[in-house]
Design brief:
Layout: H1 13-24, H2 30-44, H3 58-69, H4 80-88
Length: 89
Amino acid sequence: MAKTTNINIRTEPEVKQKIESLYSQFGITVSDAVNIFFRQSIMQGGLPFQMQIPEYNAETLAAIDDVNNDRDMSPVFDNTDDLMRSLRA
């Protein structure tokens, strides 16, 4: 068996749970996925995907501003009954 070494990664518990659940659907562990990422990085000579800041069109930016500036557009509900009443109104 090949020698291995450990790498410690810190992440939020929710992220860890979601990623473990996702990768288990492929039959791999988080460790397997990280090794795949590393091998692809080596093969590509860098990150195995393009990194970019998303550019939103004017309509999307206006919608984001609307929600950020008008709290009535994105209310917070204490329970699902209140949410459903709002949706039906």
